């Protein structure tokens, strides 16, 4: 029987860890290996480092991830594995439910075009383990580390299946490491993710994807570091395509980018 390894990166006093582990114990699929792992003591203290260590320990044919603050529906792994067999896929992606701090829940369908929240995420996917081997990673990255992994893993996949079901529950935590990052670190981390992916995925078919990452870094710059001219020029230099070509950006965002280009380029 196939085995699924479910990796939960965790360290310190994580108050909801038991909920995440329990959601794995309740899975209707009968052969789940649950691995709770902290970052290596002598390495970077990030989720990326913990996840990498978990993948190295995993014995499963398939690998899934769950963050320590979140949880999965009981039929998540069985549903995604059945879909993988039906479609002959080596990666299955599903939607997510965002659990807000005020008690509201927002269902997010899977977005097939990335970068984007559900497309970037590791936790709403089931991977054949070979997809996660031999990737180019930077364990020091905190903001955007999911994208660094998923972009490479999905590029290796021969077939990807997408499900309407929203099996994964992402629980908003304003005190999380990502939320505490200052603006400059967020921008620089995303720039670093772009550098890693340009090296790992150099083909011309990825040029629009790389430009989308750079534009997202520029939008972070608008939000957090609007008058940091040096940071603007660093991010802007990573872009090959036109600055305003992304249809996701509305009038105000495009106007801000256009004004910055006039002032700082």
What is this entry, summarized?
With 265 residues, this protein is an alpha/beta fold. The protein contains ten helices and eight strands. 42% of the residues lie in helices and 18% in strands.
- Please give the CATH architecture of the largest domain: Alpha-Beta Complex
**What is the CA-CA span between the terminal residues?**
58 Å
By CATH reckoning, the class of the largest domain would read Alpha Beta
Structural class: alpha/beta
Q: Tell me the count of domains.
A: 2
Under CATH, the topology of the largest domain can be stated as Spore Coat Polysaccharide Biosynthesis Protein SpsA, Chain A
The topology string of helices and strands comes to EHEHEEHEEHEHEHHHHH
Number of strands: 8
What topology does this entry show?
Layout: E1 4-9, H1 17-25, E2 32-37, H2 47-57, E3 62-65, E4 71-72, H3 76-87, E5 91-99, E6 105-108, H4 117-120, E7 125-128, H5 145-156, E8 160-171, H6 177-180, H7 183-200, H8 207-224, H9 229-236, H10 251-264
Parallel strand pairs: 1-2, 1-3, 5-8
Antiparallel strand pairs: 3-7, 4-8, 5-6, 5-7
Helix pairs in contact: 5-7, 7-8, 8-9
């Amino acid at each position: 029987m196939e085995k699924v390894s479910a990796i939960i990166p965790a360290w310190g006093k994580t108050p909801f860890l038991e909920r995440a582990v329990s959601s794995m114990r309740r899975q209707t699929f009968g052969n789940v290996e649950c691995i709770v792992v902290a970052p290596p003591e002598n390495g970077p203290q990030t989720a990326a480092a913990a996840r990498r260590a978990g993948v190295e320990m995993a014995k499963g044919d398939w690998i899934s991830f769950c963050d320590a603050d979140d949880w999965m529906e009981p039929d998540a792994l069985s549903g995604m594995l059945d879909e993988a067999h039906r479609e002959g896929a080596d990666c299955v992606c599903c939607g997510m439910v965002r659990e807000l701090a005020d008690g509201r829940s927002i269902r997010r369908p899977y977005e097939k075009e990335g970068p984007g929240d559900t497309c970037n995420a590791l936790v709403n996917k089931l991977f054949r383990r070979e997809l996660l081997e031999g990737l180019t990673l930077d364990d020091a990255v905190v903001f955007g580390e999911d994208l660094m992994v998923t972009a490479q893993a999905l590029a290796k996949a021969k077939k990807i299946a997408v499900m309407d079901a929203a099996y994964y529950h992402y629980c908003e935590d304003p005190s999380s490491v990502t939320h505490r990052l200052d603006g400059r670190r967020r921008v620089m981390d995303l720039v670093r993710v772009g550098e890693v992916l340009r090296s790992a995925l150099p083909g011309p078919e990825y040029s629009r994807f790389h430009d989308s990452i750079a534009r997202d870094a520029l939008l972070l710059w608008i939000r957090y570091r609007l008058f940091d001219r040096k940071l603007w020029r660093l991010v802007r230099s990573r872009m090959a395509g036109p600055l305003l070509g992304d249809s996701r950006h509305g009038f105000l965002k495009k106007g801000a980018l256009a004004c910055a280009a006039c002032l700082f380029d």
